[in-house]
């Protein structure tokens, strides 16, 4: 991979490996979110999809996630504009909005653990969805607004 490829290429020009490397491994996209019908506001919960390995912040069903969980999304260069719920710390969102990667991003630091060290990830913070009653999701709303997280 070319160093700083994300500054030199559009999403459409990136290889599959480059596109995938943009993910910082925070696991935030795997948290359950609630949308308020009256305002359209989206809030995050601390409840993670059953397929997120919370200690590694990696999906255990990544290659076939749509087959095992229909509501799971596959982020692509073509649909990034529709993913307005992604946290502002998400590299895909940051680049789409014309911003550069955060200083803690693994592609910037060279350290695959840097998002975890910066406190951005849900590693060992999230709760598996199997542990809760789905009707109780509102109980697990995260107070911190993920759209305005530190490290932006």
Describe the structure.
With 152 residues, the chain is α+β, with helices and mostly antiparallel strands. The chain has one domain (13-138). The protein contains six helices and five strands. It has helices at 5-8, 16-21, 65-68, 91-96, 106-109, 114-117; strands at residues 31-35, 42-48, 52-53, 58-59, 127-128. Strands 1-2-5 form a three-stranded mixed sheet, with no helix packed on it. A two-stranded antiparallel ribbon has the order 3-4. A hairpin with a 6-residue loop joins strand 1 (31-35) and strand 2. The longest helix is centred in the first third of the chain and has 6 residues, at 16-21. The protein is globular.
Defining traits:
152 residues; two-stranded antiparallel ribbon; 18% helix; 12% strand; globular
Task: Please render the helix and strand layout as text.
Layout: H1 5-8, H2 16-21, E1 31-35, E2 42-48, E3 52-53, E4 58-59, H3 65-68, H4 91-96, H5 106-109, H6 114-117, E5 127-128
Short summary:
The chain is an alpha+beta fold and 152 residues long. The protein is 18% helix and 12% strand.
**Rg, Å, rounded:** 15 Å
Uncertain spans: 147-152
Average of the residue pLDDT scores: 88
Structural class category: alpha+beta
User: How much of the residues is beta strand, in percent?
Assistant: 5-15%
Q: Give the end-to-end Cα distance, rounded to a whole number of Å.
A: 24 Å
Helix percent reads 10-25%
User: Order of helices and strands, N to C?
Assistant: HHEEEEHHHHE
**Overall 3D geometry?**
globular
Strand order of the largest sheet: 1-2-5
The number of helical elements comes to 6
The description of the largest β-sheet is: 3 strands, mixed
Number of domains: 1
Give a count of the beta strands, DSSP E runs of length 2 or more.
5
């Amino acid at each position: 991979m070319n160093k700083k490829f994300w500054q030199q290429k559009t999403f459409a020009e990136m290889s599959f490996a480059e596109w995938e490397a943009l993910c910082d491994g925070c696991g935030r996209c795997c948290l359950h979110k609630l949308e308020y019908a009256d305002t359209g506001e989206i809030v995050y919960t601390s409840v993670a999809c059953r397929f997120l390995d919370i200690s590694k912040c990696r999906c255990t069903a990544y290659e076939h996630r749509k087959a095992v969980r229909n509501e799971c999304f596959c982020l692509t260069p073509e649909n990034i504009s529709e993913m307005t719920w992604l946290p502002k710390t998400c590299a895909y969102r940051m680049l789409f909005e014309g911003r550069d990667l955060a200083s803690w991003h693994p592609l910037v630091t060279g350290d695959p653990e840097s998002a975890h060290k910066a406190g951005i990830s849900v590693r060992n913070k999230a709760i598996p969805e199997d542990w809760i009653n789905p009707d109780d999701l509102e109980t697990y709303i995260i107070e911190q607004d993920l759209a305005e997280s530190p490290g932006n």
